[in-house]
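Write out structure tokens for RNA-binding transcriptional accessory protein.
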Amino acid sequence: MATIFHTLIARSLQIPAGQVERTVGLLNEGATIPFISRYRKEVTGGLDEIQIGAIKNQWDKLTELEKRKASILATIEEQGKLSPELRKRIEDSWDSTEIEDLYLPYKPKRVTRAEIARKKGLEPLAKILMLQNETNLPARVKSFVKGEVKNTEEALQGARDIIAEWINENESARNTVRRSFARTAVITSKVVKGKEEEGNKYKDYFDFSEPLRRTTSHRLLALRRGEAEGILRVSISPDSEPCVEQLKRRFVKGQGEASEEVSTAVDDAFKRLLKPSIETEFANQSKAKADEEAIRVFAENLRQLLLAPPLGQKRVLGIDPGYRTGCKLVCLDAQGNLLHNEAIFPHPPRNEKGKAAAKVAQLVATYGIEAIAIGNGTASRETEQFITDIRYDRKVQVFVVSENGASIYSASKIAREEFPEYDVTVRGAVSIGRRLMDPLAELVKIDPKSIGVGQYQHDVDQTALKKSLDQTVESCVNLVGVNVNTASKHLLTYVSGLGPTLAQNIVNYRAEHGSFASRKELMKVPRMGEKAFEQSAGFLRIPGSENPLDNSAVHPESYPIVERMAKDLGCSVAELIADKELKKRLDIERYITEKVGLPTLRDILQELDKPGRDPRQAIQVFAFDPNVKSIEDVRAGQILPGIVTNITNFGCFVDIGIKENGLVHISELADRFVSDPTQVVSIHQHVRVKVLSVDLARKRVQLSMKGI
């Protein structure tokens, strides 16, 4: 079976079967996607994380389908109806739709109209009608009027019900209707009477119709959400007439009385059984496709957010701004530990500007604050203005930080464990400060769904969403690498090969024995076996270790190679890392072995150039237009600075310094055709936008990036 799976996956993903087979072998041995893509390039032929992830997903799907086939075969066999031909067709098929069609006639059913008719003894009559060669139909029908069958019409109706079920279970008939849906299906939505006011946000869909194949994923998900909320009635229908005509050409032979009965049964089969069944199929397929697209966009947004530039280990003042309840301040040391917290009230209704300014200046001086992080929620602009107007005893950088998910974190079990004696406002301000220092380390504590960079995330398949987002977080954490002596349990959980138990064991070991002095010491952590060490060690950093390679992405299994390189050059490993000229003298082909090829050797040299280098970009200070503080200040034609906060497949949302984010539609992203917004913009990108229109009633701002 494995060989068939390798062939099917290779064909589907356009990857040579040998590469697929070797990659699956690594996955089955317990290797993680980040480990395989980084440290097993020779085995996979250089496949990247996306390709390896796709292989894993396909393998999982085929494994599930194999289980389904085994269950179907067992069910049909129990009925004594499994012919060698049927068995072969099911065993040879890897198309789930085809398999379900083959199973349909044998699928245990609830009581149907056809089943009731069979119990009345009307199946022989249905067979007579289907032959369509009976010369004296009334007499034949009359012979079935007995027992529970009261009259000829009841006999004919029962026979037609059986025929309708046969047609519905006919593979060819189902494919005919499927083809019709694929070519001509239209998705339609109408507002539920009396729900017009309540569902005003779905106004565009109150009387909507569009070919299904042209419906975008965001529109489809909006329709399905409107349907789930009871605002819209949604249906999918093909061009029925030609479809029914095709079915009649297939099943109706001649023009006699029996043929008329079969024709009526075809109409009934289409309307009552085939159309609803295939409509459900297409609704599910289109929803799955829309989910896939929405999850892809969400995962890409999440990746960009997690890999946002970090300020690094600096002393930070975090501010959760507010009006009536004041601004909550927290002072954090360079490791993100909470040193001090209090509230100030610079805004209405208390307006204690002077007192608040003196307090902020004092805290900056007392705690040696190097940067200030302000949450971008309520009172953010006013707080930013207030903070930048204060005179400090040193240079202090001021940043506005996304608050998305901070309230989720501050009320979470994680936050309660971390700060049991503080309330949610203090925890929220700490999260804002830490996000500036290291967005990745802080955001891993929050359910990715709550970070606020997706669209319709509560409407898509939750299992598929979680799987994709978890993979994205894991990929980002391992790309950056983790300082094993400062990382939280939550960050360590995402490191390749660790998981929650080992992450907690590392934290416990650290608390008991102090900082790790080397990667080798990780083997002393309870339950850290050879496999877990192999999978995780390359992603765990130990700054200050005696062996400089412990603070790099060079895997411990490759240390002997680097040591041999240093020995050949007559220097130490530390000297080899420090001296670029020494590295230039290396002939890396000399170090090729049966297991280690050029890809690994090139990675090693690249890492020796900048060991432990953070792949994230440097952080930049950003300022909004000081004259724009609310939607009332926004005018058509203005050119404004902004920050991209969310990307969808119909454009992106930009924060221009007011409560409402403006929309740059996909058609306004560039002076060229754009099919995928992620090719033009990224999360947290600093952009300049032109205001196209302002709708004060609906609180909407339309923006453009064309010609700027």
